[in-house]
Here is the input.
Amino acid sequence: MATIGVLGLQGAISEHVSQIEATGQTAVIVKHADQLAEIDGLVLPGGESTTMQKLMDRYDFIEPILQFAKQGKPIFGTCAGMVLLAKKVSGSDNPHLQLIDIEVCRNAFGRQRESFEAAITINGLVKEFNAIFIRAPYAENAGVEVEILATYEGKIVVAKQGNILVSAFHPELTDDTRLMQYFNAMVEQTIKTKVEV
Ligand code: GLN
Here is the structure.
């Protein structure tokens, strides 16, 4: 069993905790950077990326999260979390963690569709995932090392690069745990590799 942290500064924290627990893993709300040492994987939840960015700066999370990623530990960013992990954010010269080589547009699906649901295919994983988009970003392009796992209307909405996974929608707001389980498998693989070394 793995221990998965949810960055507990702002956003859909308790929903992620419930989904992690529903998949049989232990969830921890991470409010201090020193808690990163106790967890095997980290979720950056949806919320408001600009607010989260400020709070991450204020509570000195940036360097510890970069170190966490450098150790090979998986990070899953959903919605605002995807924005925080992106290498580039369109129209901003202040990207944050820059751990996945994608360029994201914030609030990208237009006003009249700020929130909507769509059935999307996640390659190799799910044929129809009921994806809930709430003022969601998308990635317009991705570097060669990025695996594009799902697109919607030609835009990248799920992607993975090494130990970093991002989704533009909110998997934690559905009962469908398959994307969370995919992340759990990434985390378990890291734990196994560490034990084998
Ligand atoms: N629009 C938000 C942002 O860019 C993300 C919305 C969400 O996480 N649901 O911060």
